[in-house]
Design a protein that fits this description.
This protein is an all-alpha fold. It has helices spanning 17-20, 25-33, 37-59, 62-82, 89-107, 124-143, 146-156, 162-169, 173-184.
Amino acid sequence: MADRDRQTPAGPRQGSRARLRFAADDRLVALVRRGDATAFEILYDRHVRELLSFCRYMLGSRADAEDAVQSTFASAHRALLADDRWVDVRPWLFTIARNACLSILRGRRPVAEVVGASPPREDPVARVEQREEMRQVLATLHELPENQRTALVLSELHGFSQSEIGVLLGVRPEQVKSYVYQARS
């Protein structure tokens, strides 16, 4: 066993990043609860991009999304250390992120941010039309009721099943199907 993996008087055992990178989320949660900071970093690295994408669609702003993700991981870390209940990490993190987004939406009006690099030879008129179309899509998305917007984003962009979304929203899978249908309409 390498020195860095042994228990030291200064603190709990810390895992090797390379070894932990392939560990299942459940194993990482157990290690986080024993004080392994590296295990939490791996969970963060594994889920941050997807959560940031979700929060951007929910809030329409990268800055607000980054705030929501930071709040999500801070809350998750506190919750993991607070008790030993089992969690299905991915949907649990999305639930926390959704709640963080709702808090931000209640506190501030989101501003849509359309960012993207375009090829240098692109037609400026086409670019303006494309941006306007994207603004309209984002504006329409933000006009949807929160449950419809959440169901649509999780289903279409993050590949959640109707039953997973149902757990997250606290509704039956049939209701999720209805939310997605209504959002598309």
